[in-house]
């Protein structure tokens, strides 16, 4: 590959304490988000909160404001609307957990929505594209399963890296992975963006990317451990990070460009997934350098790592 970045000699470990403070704040926000999700107080999608989603197509285009007015005139309030003007379609989402009307907790809400639209737009033919109804019990089960999926994947990372390298590396990779997932989740929580199954997919993808990026750094550290036995661990880690820095940044930039393109041109459905991936790539690259490796240094006590080399 073309060496875009020449050989560097940056003392990354010198800034590890500042990085720990920044990462601690990001992780704390993420933990608050996890608590809010578990309690059902975050902005959850109908996948987790339960509710009804109806996508309809009009013969003559209408605006989201007109649809909201028609729904409220028939007593249906608190709907989240997403319109697709080019296709003359509107997605109507009404969460049971946050509904402001009696109808929202009744069965057959989709029929009530269609009936309200028929009354509100006489003469404008309405075609129902799709209807999804998820009960609150199912939503709660999905919410719990989603949290366990993230935890289980992280435990798998802990076991794999512990076997592939050694305990200190395993701990560093696990902390970095948790950090990346919590940071992205915390961003979605504090900005009020919807937390749904699409975001869960992005978080698991980010966890895999973060591990891959971290293992590249760890692999170089392990290679240098075999030939630089007398060098201190902080110096060895700095040397290893600098040696793979060009590869790390080029890989991250490639994934970032693809994610940005998906964010801009992928449409509303993939908007949140692409945003999560953009944040995940940035945070994952940062954590590989300033979280995973410093944890290894902290655990080792700045002593040469000469055990369990493979």
Précis, in short:
Helix content is 64%, strand content 9%.
Give the strand order, joined by hyphens, for the main sheet. Answer: 2-3-1-4
Unreliable spans? 97-107
Q: What is the distance, rounded to the nearest whole angstrom, between the alpha carbons of the first and last residues?
A: 27 Å
How many strand elements?
4
Q: What radius of gyration results from the CA coordinates? A: 24 Å
Based on Cα principal axes, name the global outline. elongated
Question: Number of helical runs?
Answer: 9
Briefly note the structural class of the backbone. alpha+beta
Report the mean per-residue pLDDT as an integer.
82
Biggest beta sheet attributes: 4 strands, antiparallel
Fraction in beta strands: 5-15%
What percentage of residues falls in helices of 4 or more residues?
55-70%
Taken in chain order, the helices and strands follow as HHEHEEHEHHHHH
């Amino acid at each position: 590959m073309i060496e875009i970045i020449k050989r560097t000699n940056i003392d990354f470990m010198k800034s590890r304490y500042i990085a720990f403070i920044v990462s601690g704040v990001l992780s704390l926000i993420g933990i608050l988000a996890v608590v809010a999700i578990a309690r059902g107080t975050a902005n959850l999608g109908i996948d987790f909160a339960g509710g009804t989603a109806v996508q309809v197509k009009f013969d003559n285009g209408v605006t989201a404001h007109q649809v909201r007015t028609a729904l409220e005139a028939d007593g249906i309030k608190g709907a989240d609307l997403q319109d697709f003007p080019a296709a003359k379609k509107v997605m109507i989402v009404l969460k049971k957990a946050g509904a402001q009307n009696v109808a929202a907790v009744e069965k057959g809400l989709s029929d009530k929505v269609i009936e309200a639209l028929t009354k509100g737009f006489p003469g404008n033919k309405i075609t129902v594209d799709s209807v999804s109804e998820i009960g609150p019990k199912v939503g709660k089960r999905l919410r719990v399963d989603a949290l366990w999926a993230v935890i289980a994947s992280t435990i798998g990372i802990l076991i794999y890296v512990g076997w592939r390298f050694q305990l200190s590396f395993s701990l560093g990779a696990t902390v970095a992975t948790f950090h990346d997932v919590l940071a992205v989740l915390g961003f979605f929580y504090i900005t009020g963006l919807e937390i749904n199954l699409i975001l869960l997919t992005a978080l698991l993808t980010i966890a895999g990317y973060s591990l891959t990026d971290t293992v590249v750094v760890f692999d170089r550290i392990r290679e240098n451990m075999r030939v630089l036995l007398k060098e201190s661990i902080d110096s060895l880690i700095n040397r290893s990070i600098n040696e793979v820095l060009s590869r790390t940044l080029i890989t991250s930039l490639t994934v970032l460009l693809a994610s940005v393109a998906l964010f801009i041109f992928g449409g509303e459905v993939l908007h949140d997934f692409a945003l999560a991936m953009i944040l995940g790539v940035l945070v994952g690259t940062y954590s590989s350098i300033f979280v995973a490796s410093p944890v290894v240094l902290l655990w080792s006590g700045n002593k040469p790592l000469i055990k369990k080399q493979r």
